[in-house]
Amino acid sequence: MKSDKSWERALLCAQAALDKKAYDLTLLKVEALTSVADYFVICTGRSDIQVQTICRAIEEAVATTGVRPLAIEGFTHGQWILVDFGDVVVHIFYETMREFYNLEGLWVQAPRCSL
Fold first, then answer.
1. pLDDT band at 3 (very low <50, low <70, confident <90, very high)
2. Which three-class secondary structure state does DSSP give residue 31?
């Protein structure tokens, strides 16, 4: 049951990001690899303003289910924003930051999920 709710929350985050024109969205199932989260949602924005807008949209979409983020880090600069919902962690990157940190490369063993 927990996994179903986590999957639904991950999909909600992904859709909210895509609605704000996030691109290169990747959804990783990390539950077997870490206790930090069940899913990582990773996406990219073309400017710091767009990265912040994507973050707000995700926060608002998930709030409709009665869930608030445990933490939001990096919002002020809009280069890499991390939104922690406990079971789902969203990474919203500005283009060059995503290339530099290469989270998909760090989590290469995590299965990619289809939307």
1. low
2. coil
